[in-house]
Amino acid sequence: MKFTKLLFTIIALAVLIVACTQDQSPNANQAGENSSNTNTNFETAATPLDELAQGKKHYVDNCARCHKEDGTGGPVEIEGEELKPDDLTSEKMKKEPDEEYMEYMKDGIPDEGMPSFKDVLSEDEMKMVLKYIREELQK
Ligand code: HEC
Predict the structure, then answer these.
(1) CB-ligand 1 contact for 130 (6 Å cutoff)
(2) In angstroms, what is the span from residue 94 Cα to ligand 1's centroid?
(3) 74 Cβ contact list (under 8 Å, min separation 6)
């Protein structure tokens, strides 16, 4: 009789513990999922969408003040200087090879007021900017 009571208590405790852990686990899982989602957005550059999104960010941060958000460029005054940034969406610019873009970003065009980005953007980041120009602005 004593043994049965003990057994019953153990089973009851076990049920209680299982119930508690089950109650917590969905929350714990959710938190885990959320944080891993956030991590994917920031850390992996592997998926095409991430590269495009990053390219857009770098474009907006670095190029849009001269070439406009939509890439069409046109005359702007930057720090008192009249510049004529190219229309990156033109047929001419669509045909321009990737290497040209990479060179312009790395070296800039000092005489015309286009700055060099080699100390601002990594090679990979420049490629993402180019990907964004090709796949969104020149679409
Ligand atoms: C301070 C203004 C400025 C910023 C910022 C700027 N550019 Fe330019 N960019 C220019 C100007 C001005 C020209 C035109 C140069 C010329 O007349 O040859 C130009 C030309 C270009 C060209 C065309 C070169 C050609 O004639 O074939 C490309 C490509 C280009 N920029 C890409 C970019 C990219 C990509 C970024 C951002 C990483 C950027 N630019 C940021 C001012 C800027």
Answers:
(1) no
(2) 14
(3) 68, 84, 85, 87
Q: What is the pLDDT of residues 30-53, one digit of tens each?
A: 444 444 444 444 555 567 779 999
Residue 69 Cβ contacting ligand 1 at under 6 Å: no
Q: pLDDT tens digits for 66-95?
A: 999 999 999 999 989 999 999 999 999 999
Tokens 């047929």 sit at which residue?
91
State in Å: Cα 72 to ligand 1 middle: 11
If one counts every other C-beta atom within 10 angstroms of the C-beta of residue 118, the result is 13
Expressed in angstroms and rounded, the spacing between residue 135 Cα and the centre of ligand 1 is 18
Neighbour count for residue 50 (Cβ, 10 Å): 16
